[in-house]
Amino acid sequence: MLSSSQDATPREVAIQLLARREYSRAELVRKLEQKAFAADDIDACLDALVEQGLQSDVRFAETFIRSRINRGQGVIRIQGELRQRGVDREIATEAFAVVEEREGVDWFELARETLARRFASPGDTPKERAKRERFLATRGFNFDQIRYALDAL
């Protein structure tokens, strides 16, 4: 662990962060700006890390999507979170395609499994049903996926 940010270079700080988990470029920019590094130094550092394959928004997006699927989150929520982390829409779209193909993701089944983990029935009253719909909607599932999950439960 580095003693203070005065001694550390942007590269050392970035490498330390990346050793723990993947970060998007935008996240690293924010972290390095907080340490008061110059914008030019940050850009040069991150360009070098990308060239060396140590930082990749594509790899970050794929890892992020997988982790969110494991948490039972849907496309809408995951896309929003990737946007917040500064991942380009095109990169996010490609990453979704790769993960969906590799993992064989079925968003309808994921919605059903996520609902079944939390609720035993689709709800006897309109109020209970609405609660389950809201639960899945906040998890990022679309209307068709929510309807499928409720019908399957």
TrEMBL record:
* PANTHER family, alphabetized: REGULATORY PROTEIN RECX FAMILY PROTEIN (PTHR33602:SF1)
Q: Which UniProt keywords apply?
A: Cytoplasm
> What are the residue boundaries of the RecX third three-helical domain, all occurrences included?
106-150
RecX first three-helical domain mapped to chain residues: 11-47
Organism whose genome encodes this protein: Vreelandella gomseomensis
Q: Where can this protein be found?
A: Cytoplasm
Q: What is this protein called?
A: Regulatory protein RecX
The residues covered by the RecX second three-helical domain are 56-95
Offer one Pfam family short name for this entry.
RecX_HTH3
InterPro entries reported for this sequence = RecX_HTH_1st, RecX_HTH_2nd, RecX_HTH_3rd, Regulatory_RecX, WH-like_DNA-bd_sf
Query: What does it do?
Result: Modulates RecA activity.
Task: State the family it belongs to.
Answer: Belongs to the RecX family.
